[in-house]
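Anyone have tokens for Arabinan endo-1,5-alpha-L-arabinosidase? Sequence:
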Amino acid sequence: MSIFLILAFHFFSIFPNENDQFDLNLVTPKSDSLQFKNPVFEPVLADPSVIKDGDYFYAYGTEDNWGEEGGYHLVPVIQSKDLVHWNVVGNSMEKKPNWKPKGGIWAPDVTKVGDRFFMYYSFSTWGDPNPGIGLAIAEKPTGPFVDQGPVFTSEEIGVANSIDPFYFEENGNKYLIWGSFHGLYLTQLSSDGSKAEGEKIKLAGNHLEAAYLIKKDGYFYLFGSSGTCCEGAKSTYKVLVGRSKNLFGPYLDQEGNELLNGSAGSLVVKSNSGDTGYAGPGHNAEIITDDKGQDWLLYHGMDKSKPKLNNGTNRRVLLMDPLIWNEGWPSIKNHVPSTSIQAAPIFN
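Reply: yep, here.
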């Protein structure tokens, strides 16, 4: 082969014709080079719940009207492969449950139970004298979730403002934790998860709502949100945590104070100071661990520069930050939402 032909061969190998096909993976950045900046989803995904099924993550939020930024959504569901890029799938319910005459479907908590997907949800209005918690079930994470009726109402269970459910399994038993500024409570559920059974146990005082529980290194960690959730840039929401060796408590903060005391809890995340950043960060979703073993906390908050939609709805966007464990206690770096570009979760 002449030197001319050899050079021509190498030239066309390095610079292929625009109509040639080649492996795009050769030029695609590796997953560990992905970066992101908060928020990871907007305009609204309040009170988020996140699960993974197959190759995708799914996140669900409170019923809201996104106005000119997306319209009305009855428990929106969004989908992602990396927790950074999200697509709106639609509404996870086709119609609103009818066991109350009026109210919103708030703070859905979704979990895969067996081969089906259980959504525990709040059914309430602001100032509702008898809100309740219902259950809806779907065959797929995208829904439709079919309502199974109430698990209990506030009057039936004897706890005022019974909203913000969280489902948890331990030793083959099903449990529900719930409550909003009238104590956080736990009760065992029936074997099918549809009704409360046995006694209710108070885990935390009247300063918390939006319970989330995780078991790690021999401890149960109980997260809750304190303050005001929905006052735009003036919101004081923040996430506190306590832990216990026993599912049923007592839960103590880092200083040894019981969460039952009404002001206890170690700080996980609060609003950024000043006029920039995010106000009212709280109501965290499930903690997600990436393939490098890093834990990530997803939660909502409001950009102080645009805390509301044009229709007046709180613009509670979806935020995400690494969760740092220091001597057995979790928090976000500097205890505030990040506002700069950072490395994203790694999923192979």
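The longest strand covers residues 316-326.
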